[in-house]
Structures are given as C-alpha cells and as structure tokens.
Write a structure and sequence with these properties.
heterodimer; A: alpha+beta; MetI-like fold; 3 domains; 4-stranded antiparallel β-sheet; 12% strand; B: mainly alpha
Chain lengths: 370, 370
C-alpha cells in the first residue's frame, strides 16, 4: 500500500515536471522575440549591428588585451611572425590563434594596420543607452557620429508626434462606437418599433464582412466631402467597422438585464433616455469596459484603415504607419526600428496587462455568440 | 363674464407665445449645436495650433459632439406629443447605428460589387470579365494558394496549439502567468510583430556575426545564413505564417481555457476512476464537450487569417511570391489604380465569408432573441 502510494506520488511529481517543463518551453518561445526587441532597443547603434542581443548574457568572446603597432622590418607581402603567431597577411586578418590560447589579429589594411592581441574570455556586452529612443521620438534633425569620425545629419522619425496622433485617433474611435452601440443595443433590446428584426439581422450579418469591401466606396465619399486625411474620417471609419461587434456584444449583455428593474423605473415615470443614462449605462459597465479595451487595442494597432484614409498626410500619421515607414525606408537601422516598435507597443501592453481580466471577459462574451 | 374671456384670450395668448417660444427654442438649440460642431470641424481641419491642443480639441469635439447630438435630439423628441415621442424615440436609439452601418458596410459592399462589374476606371460595363481574370491570372492564383497555406497551417496550428496550451496550463500551478505571457502578442500590432520577427529573421553576410536569432542558431549548426522571408520560395510563406501563429494562439488559448474550466469535474473524475488515460479523456470527453467553442474559435481564426494583410505588407510587401488576397487587393486598387479588378478581389473575400454569415444568422434565428 505504502509502496503504491509512493509510486503514484512519484508519478504525480514526474507529471508535474513534464507539464510545467513543456509549458516553460512554450512560454520561452513566445516571449523571447519580444524580449530580444526590448533588450536591443537599449543597445548602442554599433552594438546592435555587430552582435546579437543575447551577447548581453555572459558568453565567451575574443576580447582585446593589447593593441600595438606592426613591428618594423616585416615582409608584409609574405609570411610573417608576430607575437608567436606565423602566417600571411590574409591569415592575420582572420586572426591566428597561438598555442597559449591567445589570438593575434591584424586590424586595418596591409600598410597602415595595427596588431591586436586578443584573449578568449567570458564577457558581457552591457553598454546600454536611451539614445535610440531620443532619436526616434524627436521630429528634429540630430547628429550621428560615423565610425570614421565624420558627422552625418539625420532626420528624426517624430514618433512623439505620431504617438499623439494615435491617441487622438484612438480615444474617440473607442468612445464613439461604444456610445452609439450602447444606444442601439438598448433600442433593440427594450424598445418596440417597426423594422426591429430586419435591422438587427443586418447587424449580425455585418459581423464578418471584410472591411476591404468597404474601403473603396468610403474613400470616394471622403474625397467628395473633403474629409480625407482628417481625424473625423478615421473615427467614422473605425466606428463603422467596430459597430457590428459592439452592438452585438452590448445587446447580449443589455438584453439579459432583469426586466423588473426597467419596469419599476417606468412606473416611477422615467423616460427611455433617463433609464438608459441612469440605469443601463452604469449597469453595463463590465461589458462596456471589455469592449472598450478590445476596440482600443484594435484601433491602436490598426494599420490598413489608417493607411487608406490618412495615408497622404504625414502630419496626421499614426504610430503603426510611421513604424511601417521606417521598416520600408531604413529597414537595417535596427537601433531605430527596435526603439520605434517599442514606443508603439508600450501603451497597448500597459492597457493589456492592467486590464487583462476585462479583455478576456469581452472575448468570451463575443465567442458565445449564437 | 368679461374677465373669463380675458382670461381665456390671455391663456390663448400665453399658449401661443409659449408654443412659439418652444418652437423658437427647439430650432435655436439644434442650430447652436450644429454651429458649435461645425466650427469645431473647421478648426480641426484648418488649424495650425500646436499638436497637443489640436489633439485635445479633437478628442473633446469627437466624444462630446456625439453625446451632444444624442442629448439635443432626444430633448427635441421628448418635446413632441407623447404619441410621437413613443414612435420616434426608438429610431433615435438605433437610427445612428443603423445609418452608420449602412453607410460604412452594407451599401459599400453593394457599390464594390457594382465597381467589380466595370473596367479599371469605372467607365465601362464589362460583366464578369474581372472575375474571370481574378480566377485565371497567375499572380492571383498564387495569392489564392498562399491564402490556402495560411489557413491550412496558420489557422489550424493556432487552434491546435491554443488547445494544447490551454490543457497544459490547466494542470499547472503557473497557469495565470503562463497564459498571460502567451496571450501578450494580442496587444501587439501586426506592424510591431513584423518588426519583432524581421529582427529574428535578419540575415547578415557570412563573414559578419549574425544578429538575427534564427540565423545565429542556423549558422552555429554549421549552415550558410539564409534570407528566410525572401529567397527560399515557397517556404518563405511559412516564416510569415509563424508570426500569425505567434499572434493569435493566445486568443484561441484563452477561449479554450475558459471552456475547459466549464467541464464538470465529476465527469473527468468518473472517467479516471474507470481507468481512462489522459489522452482518452482529452479526445473522448474534453474535445466533444467543448466542440461548440472549437467551432467558434476556428471560424474566428479562419476569417482573421483569410483577411491577413498587415503582416505580409510590412514583411515583404507581398513580393517574393508571398502575396495574399488582401495584399493583391491593395496593390491592384491603390498602386495600380485598377478599380474594377481591385473591387473584384474584395468581393471574392466577401464571398468566402458568406457561409459563416449564413451560419451566424441561422444560429441567431434558432436562439429566438426576439
């Protein structure tokens, strides 16, 4: 009996290790990409482009011990012996290891080079800086010191401006559809009027319509109304595209509120409008919160709608567009890209981690459709 | 006698002035509202004020404006005779939502369909010619194939991995933190995700140290560095698909996790007592029990994958044989200015989701919400 108990106990421990171990591996795979980006955004420009971000962890690397002039009187075109290493210029350029575990390397060209003595040691590259963020946030020009000592002027990417634009787009584009959807959800749930069912069927049918279908006609309307490139245009578009889900979710919630509650309010002589404002809106806070997080993340992270409706106006560009532009124009400037990407991710990640519970609730409510 | 007529004429007079006054006010308030909103719009469109001020005004104007419109209209409606109030008020509640849905989704779908039957600049009716072209041209066929790959691998793996992780997490002590970290990519924009993964796929010359994680591992294993997203067609598609699996597995996991928690524990215990293995429990009890959620999650993920645009656009611009339906739509419409052909591609996307739409409507009807 005791042996059997012990064996089931051992089995349980083994099971635990297996479950937690595989979970740990999956979590690592899922987080390392973002972690690498975060770490890199704080590394210096040269460090990023010459070594992987994982070199901030202890690793073995050839470290400079001493640098010296090339000794006089060597045949630079033939075989040379320097510091106990023998080889041609080409071999020295690649670095020659000596028997005592050091490496002799030729830095620079054949005529003017120097000799470096390197040792293979444990080291970390932890030269961190905030300069990337400064450069990417500003809209002004700034100076870059090149490796050869010259100075180049570069245009800042104005992420700060884009951040502001993203806020200006996102806040109304979150609040407006929720307000309109809440009104509609209440109307569908608690009011009787001709055309109620067909109108609601329209909402349900539009839940899955791809927004690509709508972009072109709306763009023609906007051009006619001279709305293109304004915040209003983007708000309206996000409102239109977010409304079906918002109305549907809020309808599910509002229609399940107890009927007695509304009836007693009616008997007290309240109108639909006061009931909606005083009773329904406060009661629906959980549903409103879930959907607003959903819509906030959606709008903040949107690229296509912004690209189509404000694409031509650089001063109203949102973060995703600015970031995509840096990817396109300077895709190898990783010091800018990593910092820029993080600037664009910081707010949604904050919202996500602090309000995750509401967000999950919203997702669940949405998936229990039908 | 005379005093009563006096009183009567007085009351008529006061009734008259009262009504006129009310009408004047009723007209005055909406006009003032309208002027305020219009001035706000002009300010936003033409102002050169500092960005922060514009952003603040825009947010106030957008959010406040919508609330104001509802309040003023409702105030007007409630001034009408009660019968009219009752008749009109529902339309105040649902009207704006339905109107915006009609303007931004329903009618555009019809207009896009109309465009799709016309030539490149919508001057000539061409019938089904665009549709024939869409289903015969090589670039489009390749896009269809890629979309198929996206769904067959991206959507399927997201769902399977999501289910697997949900089951694993359910048995772990670290459930909350593990789920939270795997869910995190949901908060990251696809453009941001593009940057993150571009960094992982980054390729450097053979002689230089690799700064992309994948190539660093690949080279350490003794291989040549690879340009993962461009050169090795058609396998480069899979490196883009990985990004979306990374993004949406968390979504599937959260929904499955909630569903698994809903399985009665007696059911599982009974199966365990009867000697069922964990694998049997998974396939015989869990999967059938949460089949509803599996269907919902799968359709959501499939629709999302079908419309995939941002990731491909940012990573490769749809080049190197990675184009999908949505990127072809964007290229044809906005780059090549072929309105008819672009619209046709959008309609093809719409047709692809119609089965889901019908399913949703059927579910809705069966539930008899009204």
């Amino acid at each position: 009996m005791a042996a059997g108990e012990r064996s089931t106990k051992r089995k349980k421990i083994l099971n635990d290790i297996l479950v937690n171990g595989s979970l740990l591996i999956i979590v690592l795979i899922w987080t390392i990409p973002t972690l690498g980006l975060l770490v890199s955004s704080f590394r210096t420009r040269t460090d990023i482009s010459t070594s992987g971000w994982w070199t901030i962890f202890p690793h073995k690397e050839w470290v400079l011990v001493k640098e010296m002039e090339v000794p006089e009187g060597l045949d630079r075109k033939g075989v040379m012996t320097i510091e106990g290493a023998t080889g041609t210029f080409k071999e020295f350029r690649a670095g020659i290891e000596t028997p005592d575990g050091r490496r002799v390397a030729w830095v620079g060209n054949r005529r003017l080079g120097k000799i470096q003595i390197q040792a293979n040691e444990w080291t970390t590259r932890t030269d961190f800086t905030l300069k990337n963020y400064k450069d990417v946030m500003t809209g002004k020009q700034y100076e870059v010191r090149q490796p050869n000592g010259s100075v180049r002027i570069e245009q800042g990417d104005n992420m700060a401006g884009a951040f502001l634009n993203s806020l200006t787009v996102t806040i109304p584009a979150t609040v407006i559809p929720i307000l309109i959807a809440a009104f509609a959800a209440y109307g569908f749930a608690w009011m009787r009027f001709p055309g109620r069912k067909p109108m609601f069927i329209l909402v349900v049918a539009l839940l899955v319509v791809p927004l690509q279908v709508a972009l072109v006609p709306i763009l023609t309307d906007y051009v006619k109304l001279d709305l293109n490139g304004t915040f209003l245009a983007v708000w309206l578009a996000h409102t239109g595209f977010g409304l079906p889900l918002a109305t549907y979710l809020l309808f599910n919630y509002i229609s399940s509120l107890p009927r007695d509650l509304l009836e007693s309010a009616f008997i007290d002589g309240a109108s639909h409008f006061t009931i909606f404002l005083r009773l329904i809106l406060p009661l629906s806070m959980p549903a409103l919160a879930s959907f607003s997080i959903f819509q906030f993340l959606w709008v903040w992270n949107d690229y296509l709608v912004a690209l189509v409706f404000i694409g031509s106006k650089p001063d109203v560009q949102v973060l995703t567009m600015r970031l995509a532009e840096i990817v396109g124009s300077r895709g190898n400037d990783w010091h800018l890209l990593t910092a820029g990407a993080f600037v664009s991710m910081v707010l949604p990640l904050l919202v996500f981690f602090s309000l995750q519970r509401f967000f999950v609730r919203g997702l669940l409510a949405g998936s229990v459709k039908g | 006698m005379s005093s009563t007529t006096d009183a009567k004429s007085g009351s008529i007079l006061s009734w008259l002035t009262g009504t006129i006054g009310q009408i004047v006010i009723s007209l005055f308030v909406p006009v003032v509202t309208f002027i305020v909103l219009w001035q706000g719009f002009i300010f936003l469109r033409d102002s050169e004020a500092p960005k922060v001020i514009i952003a603040l005004v825009a947010i106030l104007w957008g959010v406040g404006g919508v609330a104001l419109l509802y309040i003023v209209t409702n105030w007007l409606v409630e001034k009408l005779p009660p019968a009219w109030t009752r008749r009109l008020q529902p339309f105040l509640f649902v009207g704006p939502a339905v109107a915006i849905l009609a303007w931004f989704l329903a009618i555009p779908a019809l207009r896009t369909f109309w465009f799709s039957l016309h030539n490149a600049n919508s001057t000539e009716f061409v019938g089904l010619q665009n549709y024939i072209a869409v289903f015969t041209q090589r670039t489009m066929l390749l896009a269809f194939r890629n979309n198929f790959l996206w769904i067959a691998f991206g959507a399927t793996l997201s769902v399977v991995l999501g289910l697997l992780i949900a089951v694993l997490a359910d048995r772990s002590k670290f459930e909350t933190i593990a789920k939270s970290l795997i869910f995190m990519p949901m908060a990251i924009s696809m453009v941001g995700a593009g940057v993150i993964w571009n960094f992982i796929y980054e390729v450097k010359d053979k002689a230089d140290p690799q700064i992309g994680l994948l190539n660093a591992i690949w080279v350490a294993l003794g291989n040549e560095p690879q340009a993962w997203t461009s050169l090795i067609q058609p396998w480069n598609n899979f490196f883009l698909i990985i990004i979306v699996i990374w993004l949406q597995t968390g979504f599937a996991m959260v929904l499955f996790s909630a569903a698994i928690k809903g399985i009665p524990s007696e059911l599982m215990e009974a199966a365990r007592v009867d000697g069922a293995s964990e694998v049997q429990i998974f396939f015989r009890i869990m999967v059938p029990y949460i089949s509803g959620t599996i269907i919902t999650v799968s359709t959501t993920v499939v629709i999302f994958t079908l419309k995939i645009f941002d990731v491909v656009w940012v990573m490769t611009g749809g080049q190197f044989g990675t184009q999908v339906i949505a990127t072809q739509f964007f290229r044809e419409y906005f780059t090549n200015r072929n309105f008819g052909y672009g619209s046709t591609i959008a309609i093809v996307l719409l047709i692809a989701v119609i089965p889901v739409m019908i399913y949703n409507l059927k579910q809705f009807n069966e539930r008899e919400a009204f």
